[in-house]
Amino acid sequence: MFIPLHDANTLKHIKVQWVTLALMTLNIAVWLLTSLESEQAAQATTVGLGYIPAIAFGHAVLAQGLEIVPEPLTYLTYAFVHTGFWHLAGNMIFLWVFGDNVEDAMGHLRFLIFYLVCAAAGALCHGLLTMTSEAPLVGASGAVSGVVAAYVMLHPRVRVWVLVFFRVPLPLPAFVPLLLWIGQQFFMLAIAPDGDVSWGAHVGGILAGAFLILLLRRPGVPLFDREIVTPRAVRNDPGAGQAIAAGTDGRTAQRFPWGRR
Question: I need a surface site. Which of 19, 52, 155, 158 has the fewest CB within 10 A?
Answer without folding.
Answer: 158
